[in-house]
Every structure is written in C-alpha cells, then in structure tokens.
C-alpha cells in the first residue's frame, strides 16, 4: 500500500481503492496513518511528504478515494471502518438507484419480483440485472429491425411490438435462474405488467421454448451445430477449456502470493492461466471453468474482471485486459456464501433437481444395452418405485437427503454387466439403493424389494439343460432349505437373510449343473451355509443330510466345506489417514501423452487411494472442506495441479474414503452434496454380540488348533485335565488383568469402577468359582524385565515385549532401582513412592513395550504422571524428549524425534503436555503422527531425500518391497511412542 501511495503522490494521479473494508482492521489502521500524512501535507501546501522512511515529492493534484459495500447485509468478509479512518474521508452514500429514470414497466416488474418471488441467494433484482435486460432489449430490437419485422410482418402477419421484445428479453435473462415454484409466479407477473393478450400456452411449453432459444443462441455464438454429439472441436472455432477447482488448493496457490521479504511475485494457477489466455490470438476462444465452492475471498478478487472493463490487475503491477474471446464460467451447487456483489455481476442458470427426470437419465443409459427389453420392463415396474421409496421414506446413511440422480447411478453400477432375470434385478436394487441407507432402513427396503422364491427360480431355470433333475431337486429340497435358514438359522452378519440373497447364494453353485443328488446337497450346504454362523452351519448341514438320505454322508466331507477370502495382490493400497495428497512419485510413474503428464501405478494394475476419517478434516470459515474439494477434482477431472502449477493426470486410480460415525452423527455430517452424489456410499453397522461371539470362537479355535499338535508327549488322559485346569487359571488371571487395563482404567467415576468390579466378580464366581481374583491381582503386576543399559537401542517384536508376573515387593524394588538410575543420569526426582505411582509405572510400561504404543494420561497435578513416564523410560533405556513451546520449536523437536526413531532406530518417548497443544496446528501434527506415522509438509524435500539415502541400505538388506518413505514411517512407528498429559 505504501508503494501505491508513493506512486500516486509522485505523479499526481487519483487512486480509487475498491472494496476497501475487506482489509483487516489492523491493516486499515496502518493505512489511515499514511493517508493522514498525505492529507496533512496537502492542506499545509508542502512540496514533499515522508513515506517509507524517505521524503517523497508531492504533486498537489493527487487524490485518494475509497469505495466499499456495507458490512453485513449479505456482503461477507466486510468490516466497519475504524474511527480514525472515517474522519479522513467525506462520505457519499448511494442507497438505491432511481430505477424510474431507467425503465418504467421493467422497474415495476423488478419491484414485484423482489416482493412476490421466494428469497433465494442467487436472485438479483438490482441495477446490474436491470441493465442486462435492457441491453438484451436493445440487441433484440436491432435484430428485429435488421430483419424488417419491427412494425409489420409480410403477408399480413401480426405486429411485433416493443413490449413483446421486452417481455422476451425478460424471460431470456430471468427464467433460467428461477426455481420451479417461481416460474409460475413469474409468468403471472409478466402477464399482469405487460398488456399483451394471453396466448394460452402452458408454462412448461414456455419454459421449454425459452430454454431452446437460449441453447440455440449459445450454439450460434460459438458456431456449434444443434446436435448433442457435437463437441467443442466441431464448432469451427479453436476453443480451449481451462478447468480449475478454486477450493481444492490453498488461496495462495490459486491467486498467487508476494514474498514479504524479497517482494517477489509468484503466480497462482488462476493468474497463470489468465496470462496464458491473454496471450492467445483473437481467433482462439478460451473458457475458464471454475468448478467448486464459491466464497467472497477468492471470487471477489475477480470483480473487475466480471465488470464491463474486464480488467485483472496483478500485485506485480501487470494489468490483463480480457477480450470478448474469453469467458468465465462458475459451476457450483450452492451460492449461499456469495455476496450480492458477485450475484449482480454474473448470469445465473439454475439446474434444479426437479428439472432432471429419472426417465431421462435411464433412457440415456439404456441406449447401448443389448437386453434393453427386459431391462426396460423391470425398470418400469420396479426401479422408479424403489427410488421414490428411498427418497421419501428411507433414512440415508450420510447427510439429510439423497439426490435422485445419485440414487439412480448407485443402481446402474450394478446393472452394467446386464441382468438375465428378475432375481438379479432385485439383488441389484437392494445392493445399489440399499447401500445409501442406514442399516435399519436398508432392512425395511430389502423387504419391499424382495420377490417370491418361485419367481426367482422359474426365471433362472429357463435356459438350463438338465432342468428336469434340477426342478425335481429344487421342489423337494431347496424351498425347504431356504425356509429353514430364514426361520431357524443363525445368520453370520445382520439380523435376517432375504429370500433373494439366499437363493442367489445357492444358484451360483448350480450354474455348472448337477448330475447327482450329492452334488445338489453340496451346493445347498455351501451356498446357504455361507450365510450362517459356524454352529448353525453345522446344524444346517446335518439337516440337509437328514432330508436327502443317510447314505449321502459317505460322499460328502463336511470338514472341507469352508469359505475363504482372497486378497487381490494386483492392487496397491495407500493408507492416507486424513492427509491430502502424498508424494505421487513413490507409487506412480509419469508418462507423457497429448494431454500432458499422467501418473499411472508403478507396480500394480490399479491404485487405490484410501482416505481414513475424511469427515475429520476441518472446514474453512466458509464451510468448505479442502480435502473434499480436492477429491471432487480427482473424481471429476482425473487429475490435480502440482507444486509447479502443472496439470497432472491420474489414470487407473480409485478413491475409497471411510467415516466412523454413529447413526445420529451420520445424519448431521455436512459433506458436499456434489461429493456425495459423485461417489457410491455403503453403510456398515457395528458388530453385535452374536457376531463378535462367532468371530472370537473362530479365532480361538485356530489358536487352540495350533497348540494341541505340539503336546506330543501328553499321551495319558489323566494328565490332560491337570494341564487344562492350570491353563484356565493362568489364562483367566491374564484376561482379567488385561480387561482392567483396557476398560477399567478409562473409567473416571468411582461408581462406574465399582460396577465394573462387580461384573467381573459375578462372572468369575458364576462360571469359574474365582470370585477373589481381583483381590489377588491387587498385589500382582505384569511388566517387562527392563533394559536400563539399552542406550536407547532396542528392537521390539511386532507383538511387543513379553510381560512377566511380579509381586508387589519385587516390583517395588525394581521401581526404586529405576529411580536411582534416572537420578544418576538426569536430575533428582525427589519422589515419595506411593502405591498409585507404582501402579501407574506398571501400566505405562505395559503400553510402551508395544510398537507405536501411545498413551493419554489424565489426572490432577502432583499425581505423578510425569514421574511415572520418566521411571518407565529409565527402565526401558529409552530417550525421553520434552518438546519446547511455540509452534516452530515444537515442529523442530517433533521432526528430530521422528528422525531419531525412523533413521537412528532409537526408542523415543515424546512427552506432550496440554500447553503444547493449545495451538490447534500442534494438535493436528500429533494426531497425524498417531494415525498415519507422518506429518505432511513437516520435512522439506531435501530432508526427505537425506532420510531416503540414509535408509536405502537397510531397506535393501531387509528386501523391503515398498518405498523408502514407507520404510521410514514403518521404522518410526516401531520405535516412536507418544504421551499426552491432560489435567482435570
């Protein structure tokens, strides 16, 4: 600002600062001091003024003016002027233009629009909108006059009056932005204001006619033929399209920035694109499509571009004058954050969901389908009703409401490979539409979409060669088996299995046909049994054999009937954990084609970007989530801008995101509706008690199955009960100890702790006759053997260090030795050893001896939390780091800690206290380390290269298949532990 003032006073120019109150109050106060110096010198008649610590020649013809919109009243990011600044300027208020002098009937009409039509953020009935209509009237009059049709049409036609021209212009420039409800009110107002006879044309016909006229004129303006298959290249003009998502990047990357020290200007993507467009020859048409959320911070930087002068002034001093061959197109789903200053400068076309019919989407999708007759019949009978049920009665999994087009797309994905039967179509409906619903609502929807079993079977049986044998076996056994599973079976997942799903699970095993009763029995057990729990599956298999004959059991091996899941090794997976983009060079290779550089997976056919907890990324003050905007850009345009502002394409890349939410939280989550519409959604519920029992029983059966063959010397049956009894006692003791550490230590209230103890005692007494186990554990500790001489170097096995049982006396002596060792190497602790401190050290050590173990210690000051950590670090021979305060020093200490753990292989404990995380940025760093093992942007590219060179030999020795950065993160997570201390 000072440099601009120097230029004004030297050359005697008038400077007008538009949108002045968008500056911060501190900046405005500083600017007022400079303006006051200039005005004082002008009043006193001085020939110079002191600016920028030097005397500047003063030309008395200079002047300073400011213009601004009022703070509030829909204008975002505006502030009140400080009092010292108000005194420096003479105010001139423009409250409202005199529309009566501009237009007569149009003025009345616009006044009625503002009162009668609904209040929408994108409606503008001000002077700029009025000016646009009047310009349209003038252009239409010139066109009509040129064609000789203004006063009279040849061969006795009707007279085309100026009122009709004005009405057509109003429709052309207004109807496109109205909501469907306001279209009817709009036509009524038009007929009331203009005294033109009613032509009895339906509103829909008027809307279609006006829309067709808009499309025709748009096509004519760029030379396109009115054919939906024509592209921009078919216009006969050289058209270049530049697409930018303004919210998928920081503001400085979009608009550029000035280095505060060197004053060097660095272009942003928008300013660089503007320069490229400006350099194009006049015969090249350029479209700048800014596809993303709109807020005043970035779009009002283009106010002068959207005005009649079409001028963009860069901070570097370069002024770019756009010609008529440059068009700006803004695409967004919401204008609630746009101010009237923006709305009045742009034309608006509202594409309402009510304007998009489901049949139009389906007809477009059906054009290239081979079995379109069957599909069309099923779609007409079921799809539209199912979509209507989901939209009106279904409870969506995320957000408040699902969009019709998004619902249709979720079904069409499952119909891409075609359907051969009504059953397949029903399954596609349940999977496609049901994935958008909550678990409870999905079950209700599945009941609505369920079909009779015989209808499914008859449709499937049409093209089967051995239909006689199949029909006989199906009639005798299949329906009976499905009924048994539905009524008596215990399903593995969910509460109840649907008929269609059960039948499909059997028909898959019957596709290749059956030649015998035994094959059909195997298909029944494998197909229907896959839906059941382990215990219920065995009962079902026995029931099938009972139905089909005892002799069948000799030809079927029930022990070999199992289900296996296979990992697809052809796909690489990156766990991103709430970060934005990672270094694509690690997992992708760059190739060049006619569109520029494109990244493709290096060592896999496809690449999956996995984003964990995407809803936790904080939105900015305008409600936009930058990560979501970045993902929208990847999905819609398959690429991104790198640090050099170059567009990088992505090929063979898929995106998966997760959110851990309760049903109530899922309804309140505010993610972009455009993002939710562009992805497929699937909601999963928590596992219930029955499912957990099945999972744990299966897991424990594998563990016990590995133990039993190892006891080869236990041949006598009398020894086995003794072994089992001893194992049970030890196992229960360890189980209760771990349960107390995992669950009881999280309880705050003594009342809750007492309830937990009573539950443990009741279970131990009822099932195992061991009610005194908690009393026994009060004097027992499970700890490691310690390693004070480790010198910060110690390898941890993947499952952590083994824990040994010590009684209170032995553990107390070990703690005292650790205190003496710490005081010898560091400072004196001056501790009074109390039982709570001894217990805390044991529990801290239990966490720290697992790789990447992190701990949150909450308690009052003086309880001994910090001392317990110091004692545990001394016992384990680990390096304890207490970071400095201040974000910059905290970042430096965190970086050092990560390098010690990841490069040097030292066991590092990082002690983070509540005063460290008062800055949310520091807390975000800690959370990123805990969840992902890294902090994006913490290390510079040079530091990352240095880390990679240090670890290259180690990774080669271990035959590590991943990147060096992945090796560093793995090593860091193995040796890095984090503490968070909180006060109550």
TrEMBL record:
Residues 245-345 form the ATPase dynein-related AAA domain. SUPFAM superfamilies: P-loop containing nucleoside triphosphate hydrolases. Coiled coil: none annotated. Belongs to the dynein heavy chain family. The keyword Lipid biosynthesis does not apply. Residues 830-968 form the Dynein heavy chain AAA module D4 domain. This is Dynein heavy chain. InterPro entries: AAA_6, ATPase_dyneun-rel_AAA, DHC, DYNC2H1_AAA_dom, Dynein_AAA1S, Dynein_heavy_chain_D4_dom, P-loop_NTPase. GO terms for cellular component: dynein complex; microtubule. Residues 1-225 form the Dynein heavy chain hydrolytic ATP-binding dynein motor region domain. Residues 359-448, 454-547 form the Cytoplasmic dynein 2 heavy chain 1 AAA+ ATPase domain. GO terms for molecular function: ATP binding; ATP hydrolysis activity; dynein intermediate chain binding; dynein light intermediate chain binding.
């Amino acid at each position: 600002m000072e440099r601009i003032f120097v230029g004004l006073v030297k050359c005697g120019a008038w400077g007008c600062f538009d949108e002045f109150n968008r500056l911060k109050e501190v900046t405005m106060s500083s600017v007022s001091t400079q303006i006051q110096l200039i005005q004082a010198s002008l009043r006193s008649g001085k020939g110079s003024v002191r600016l920028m610590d030097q005397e500047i020649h003063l030309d008395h013809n200079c002047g300073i003016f400011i213009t601004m919109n009022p703070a509030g009243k829909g204008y975002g990011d505006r502030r009140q002027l400080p009092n010292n600044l108000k005194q420096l300027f003479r105010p001139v208020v423009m409250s409202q233009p005199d529309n009566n002098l501009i237009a007569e009937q149009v003025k009345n009409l616009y006044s009625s629009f503002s009162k009668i039509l609904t209040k929408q953020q994108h409606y503008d009935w001000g002077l700029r909108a009025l000016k646009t209509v009047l310009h349209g009237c003038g252009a239409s009059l010139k066109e009509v006059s040129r064609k000789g049709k203004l006063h009279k049409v040849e061969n006795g036609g009707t007279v085309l009056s100026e009122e009709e021209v004005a009405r057509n212009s109003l429709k052309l420039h207004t109807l496109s932005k109205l909501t469907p409800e306001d279209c009817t009110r709009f036509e009524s107002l038009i007929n009331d204001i203009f005294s033109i006879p009613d032509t009895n044309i339906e509103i829909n016909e008027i809307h279609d006619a006006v829309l067709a006229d808009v499309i025709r004129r748009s096509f004519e303006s760029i030379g396109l033929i009115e054919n939906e298959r024509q592209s921009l290249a078919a216009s006969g003009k050289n058209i270049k399209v530049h697409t930018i998502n303004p919210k998928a990047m920081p503001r400085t990357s979009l608009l550029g920035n000035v280095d505060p020290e060197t004053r060097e200007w660095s272009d942003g993507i928008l300013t660089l694109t503007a320069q490229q467009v400006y350099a194009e020859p006049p015969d090249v048409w350029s479209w700048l499509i800014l596809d993303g959320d709109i807020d005043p911070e970035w779009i009002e930087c283009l106010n002068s571009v959207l005005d009649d002068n079409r001028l963009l002034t860069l901070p570097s001093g370069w002024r770019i004058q756009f010609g008529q061959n440059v068009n700006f197109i803004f695409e967004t789903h919401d204008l609630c954050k746009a101010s009237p200053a923006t709305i009045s400068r742009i034309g608006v076309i509202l594409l309402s969901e009510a304007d998009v019919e489901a049949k139009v989407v389906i007809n477009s999708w059906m054009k290239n389908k081979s079995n379109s007759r069957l599909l069309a019949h099923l779609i007409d009978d079921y799809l539209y009703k199912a979509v209507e049920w989901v939209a009106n009665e279904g409870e969506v999994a995320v957000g408040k409401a699902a969009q019709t087009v998004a619902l249709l797309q979720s079904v069409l994905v499952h119909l891409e490979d075609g359907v051969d039967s009504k059953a397949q179509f029903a399954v596609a409906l349940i999977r496609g539409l049901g994935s958008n619903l909550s678990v409870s609502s999905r079950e209700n929807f599945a009941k609505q979409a369920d079909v009779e079993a015989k209808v499914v079977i008859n449709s499937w049986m049409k093209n089967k060669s051995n239909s006689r044998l199949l029909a006989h076996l199906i009639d005798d056994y299949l329906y009976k088996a499905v009924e048994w599973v539905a009524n008596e079976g215990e399903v593995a997942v969910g509460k109840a299995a649907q008929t269609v799903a059960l039948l499909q699970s059997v028909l898959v095993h019957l596709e290749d046909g059956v030649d015998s009763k035994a094959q059909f029995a195997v298909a029944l057990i494998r197909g229907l049994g896959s839906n059941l729990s382990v215990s219920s599956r065995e009962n079902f298999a026995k029931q099938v054999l009972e139905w089909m004959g005892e002799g069948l059991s000799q030809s079927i091996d029930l022990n070999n009937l199992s289900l296996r899941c296979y990992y697809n090794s052809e796909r690489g997976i990156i766990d991103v954990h709430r970060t934005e983009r990672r270094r694509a060079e690690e997992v992708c290779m760059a190739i060049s084609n006619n569109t520029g550089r494109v990244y493709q997976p290096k060592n896999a056919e496809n690449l999956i970007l996995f984003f964990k907890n995407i809803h936790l990324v904080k939105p900015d003050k305008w409600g936009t989530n930058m990560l979501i905007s970045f993902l929208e850009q990847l999905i819609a345009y398959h690429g991104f801008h790198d640090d050099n502002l170059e567009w990088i394409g992505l090929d063979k890349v898929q995106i998966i995101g997760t959110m851990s939410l309760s049903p109530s939280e899922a309804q309140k989550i505010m993610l972009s509706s455009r993002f939710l519409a562009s992805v497929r959604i699937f909601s999963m519920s928590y596992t219930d008690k029955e499912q957990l029992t099945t999972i744990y029983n299966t897991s424990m059966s594998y563990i016990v199955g590995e133990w039993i063959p190892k006891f080869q010397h236990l041949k006598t049956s009398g020894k086995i009960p003794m072994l089992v009894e001893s194992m049970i006692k030890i196992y229960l003791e360890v189980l209760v100890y771990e349960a107390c550490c995992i669950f009881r230590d999280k309880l705050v209230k003594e009342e809750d702790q007492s309830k937990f103890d009573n539950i443990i005692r009741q279970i131990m007494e009822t099932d195992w006759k061991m009610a005194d186990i908690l009393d026994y554990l009060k004097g027992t500790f499970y700890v490691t053997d310690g390693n004070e001489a480790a010198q910060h170097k110690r390898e941890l096995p993947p499952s952590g260090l083994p824990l040994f049982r010590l009684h209170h006396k032995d553990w107390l002596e070990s703690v005292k030795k650790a205190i003496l060792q710490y005081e010898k190497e560091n400072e004196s602790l001056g501790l009074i050893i109390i039982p709570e401190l001894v217990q805390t050290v044991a529990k801290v050590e239990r966490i720290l001896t697992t790789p990447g173990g992190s701990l949150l210690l909450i308690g009052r000051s003086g309880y001994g939390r910090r001392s317990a950590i110091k004692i545990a670090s001394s016992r384990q021979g680990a390096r304890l780091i207490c970071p400095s305060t201040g974000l910059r020093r905290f970042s430096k200490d965190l970086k050092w800690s990560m390098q010690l753990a990841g490069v040097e292989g030292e066991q590092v404990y990082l002690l983070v206290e509540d005063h460290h995380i008062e800055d949310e940025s520091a807390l975000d760093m800690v959370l990123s380390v805990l969840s992902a093992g890294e902090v994006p942007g913490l290390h510079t590219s040079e530091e990352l290269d240095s880390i990679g060179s240090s670890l290259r030999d180690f990774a080669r020795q271990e035959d590590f298949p991943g990147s060096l950065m992945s090796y560093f993160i793995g090593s860091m997570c193995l040796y890095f532990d984090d503490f968070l201390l909180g006060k109550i």
